Amino acid sequence: MQKSYRHLADRSWLFRTVGWGHDALVWKQIISALRMTGYDHVISIEHEDALASVDEGLESAVAFLSRIVLHDPPVEPWWT
Questions:
Q1: Coil, helix or strand for 14?
Q2: 4: pLDDT confidence band, cut at 50, 70 and 90?
Q3: How confident is the model over 7-24, as pLDDT tens digits?
Q4: Which residues 6+ apart lie within 8 Å of 45 measured at CB?
Q5: What Rg value do the Cα atoms of the chain yield, rounded?
Q6: Cys-Cys crosslink for 17: which of 28, 36, 57, 66, Cβ 3.0 to 4.6 Å?
Q7: Helix, strand, coil % (nearest 5) of the chain?
Q8: How far is 15 from 66, CA to CA, in rounded Å?
Q9: Is the pTM of this model over 0.90?
Q10: Residues 71, 22: Cα–Cα separation, whole Å
C-alpha cells in the first residue's frame, strides 16, 4: 500500500529540493560526469519538495546549482 504524499512523516522517503537531499560533492560529480560525456547544456529542476514552497524551493535549488555548475566551456589540457 502506497503512503499518501500528504502524510510526510509516515513516508519512508520524500522528494527534496536540489541541495537538500544530496550535498554539493554529489552534484559536482554529476556535473563533472555530464561534462566528460560532452553534455554542456540545460539542467532542468523538478521541484516536488512539500517541505518548501514553490518559490523558496526553486530559488534555493537555483542558488545551490549556480555555485556548482561550471559556466565557462571546457578547455584542452594546456599542460600536455
A1: coil
A2: confident
A3: 888 888 788 999 999 999
A4: 18, 58, 61, 62, 65
A5: 16
A6: 57
A7: 35, 0, 65
A8: 21
A9: no
A10: 21
E strand residue ranges, the chain: none
Q: Which has the closest alpha carbon to 49: 25, 20, 80?
A: 20
The CB-side HSE value for 22 (13 A sphere, CA atoms) comes to 10
Query: Which triple of cell numbers denotes residue 70?
Result: 561550471
Per residue in 22-78, pLDDT (tens digit) is 999 999 999 999 999 999 889 999 999 999 999 999 999 999 999 999 989 888 888
Is the CB of residue 16 less than 8 Å from the CB of residue 49? yes
The three cell numbers locating residue 59: 530559488
